[in-house]
Design brief:
With 412 residues, the protein is of the alpha+beta class. The chain contains 15 helices and eleven strands. The relative contact order is 0.08.
Length: 412
């Protein structure tokens, strides 16, 4: 009897081929036999232990088919894991959290528009860091249409850096889930260093002209400019929105999601726990909905200054920022009325500065507390709802020219 060199195939980890779905555990074993024929075993189990046992039975069945009674002398098998496209489809349907539908929608759109056309056909276990790095650098040069009214293309422009980062975040989230399900050993996107600043600088150099200067990516407003915007917005929904964002440092979706019931006028505090967004569900038309904030640190109680308390006390029960009918203000409409107030205040078209946006108000709040008021970064980070103080320091601790003049006055 010949000596057998048959080596039975075994799962890579305890959870290879097993994933959770609707409270149960699904077993999905997909392999390719030496003959090229596909082998697949599927089962639904109530416990993970039962799922592992059933999965091992599928592997044993495969090994019997491949080894046979004659104990084949050679054996060539390879895993047929899911492709990235297959896995993303499963992430959207099963794994990504449903508590924040907007996140699922954004992840799915980023993967569909940018990632899958390039990496979608790759087997999940063959995606390497260099492939992701090359993909992101290629994506940085991709031009996408800018659409005007009626969906008509009016121009083409390169993707913003925030869109590039969103694509990487969505991909990394999917790969993290693949690690949890035992489909891959390690997330190849973790620890991958991308020089976003080099990408931006490279674009600026290529787009610069002899008489143009690098324009900053975001507008840091001064206290006088914020007051001018408030005065220009008097009597419009933008007034309350500017007040909430500049005095409480809220994201625009958080400000739009505030209800008068969220305020405790006796203690002078507000509970920030929801945001107003347009949500798509099951292919139906999107609708306005209040959704929970993403992180624990985002859900916070903030002391409220007198100007905001007076605004809330003057309102009937309902949204703090409301439309003409007293209901929730549409996010796109909110951006429009804000832009109109900024233009009326003379803040748009400033040489060397981008026009302010809703985020400029949150940017002002955080930078003002850090640089002008000297508030500790740990306190500012909690007020802003950041997950980590490094986010506060890295993205919001911008200094104004006045801050720099005050600093250098110490040497006079």
């Amino acid at each position: 009897m010949p000596t057998s060199v048959f080596k039975p195939l075994r799962p890579k980890t305890n959870d290879t081929g097993i994933y959770a779905k609707d409270g149960d555990y699904m077993v999905d074993v997909r392999l390719i036999r030496a003959s090229g024929k596909r082998f697949r075993g599927q089962a639904r189990c109530r416990t993970k232990a039962e799922a592992r046992k059933r999965r091992d039975e599928f592997y044993e069945e495969f090994n019997i088919l491949e080894g046979g009674p004659a104990h084949r002398q050679t054996l060539t098998v390879r895993h047929e894991g899911p492709s990235l496209s297959d896995w993303i489809r499963e992430c959207v349907e099963v794994h990504w959290p449903r508590t924040v539908p907007a996140t699922v929608r954004d992840y799915a759109a980023s993967m569909r528009d940018h990632v899958l056309p390039v990496l979608g056909d790759l087997p999940l276990d063959q995606i390497e860091p260099n492939a992701i790095r090359s993909f992101l650098h290629g994506l940085a040069d991709k031009e996408v249409p800018r659409l005007g009214k009626g969906g008509k293309e009016i121009a083409r422009a390169k993707l913003s850096v925030s869109s590039l980062k969103a694509a990487r975040t969505a991909l990394s989230s999917a790969l993290n889930l693949a690690v949890e399900q035992g489909l891959i050993q390690k997330n190849p996107a973790l620890g991958l260093r991308i020089r976003w600043d080099a990408i931006v600088k490279g674009r600026r150099r290529s787009e610069a002209t002899l008489d143009s200067d690098d324009r900053p990516e975001k507008r840091l407003l001064t206290p006088k400019e914020v007051e001018a915007a408030l005065a220009a917005a008097e009597g419009t929904p933008a007034h309350g929105l500017i007040l909430l964002q500049s005095r409480l440092g809220l994201r625009i979706s958080e400000a739009l999601g505030l209800h008068t019931r969220d305020f405790d006028l006796d203690s002078g505090t507000v509970l920030v726990q929801r945001q107003l967004q347009r949500v798509e569900a099951d292919g139906k038309a999107s609708k306005l909905a209040l959704v929970e904030l993403k992180t624990k640190r985002s859900r916070r109680t903030i002391p409220v200054p007198g100007s905001v308390l007076r605004l809330v006390a003057s309102l009937d029960v309902g949204p703090v920022v409301r439309n003409g009918l007293g209901g929730w203000l549409e996010p796109r409409t909110a951006q429009t009325v804000l832009a109109r107030a900024f233009r009326k205040a003379g803040l748009c078209g400033v040489p060397g500065q981008p026009d302010p946006t809703s985020h400029s108000l949150r940017f002002f709040f955080i930078s003002y507390l850090l640089n002008d008021r000297g508030v500790p970064v740990t306190v500012v980070s909690r007020l802003a709802g950041h997950a980590d103080v490094s986010t506060t320091l890295r993205f919001y601790s911008e200094a104004t020219e006045e801050n720099m003049r005050d600093a250098m006055a110490a040497f006079d």
